Known about the structure:
By secondary structure, the chain is mainly alpha-helical. Helices cover 76% and strands 0% of the residues.
Amino acid sequence: MKALRTCREIAALISEREDRTLKLSERAVIRVHVFICRRCTAWEKHVKFMRQGMNAWKNYRGD
Ligand SMILES: [Zn+2]
């Protein structure tokens, strides 16, 4: 497995992380990449923010 991935692949993995449990190697790849790449750090934050928004929406709907 390649240690370095393109931003496109990392962004896809970060999105998938919300839907499935990633392999340990996949999580490691994200962590290393995010450490050196500002763009993917921003994307990760964005995905986390969106998920929080989704959860808030789900809670709202559940009431
Ligand atoms: Zn990147």
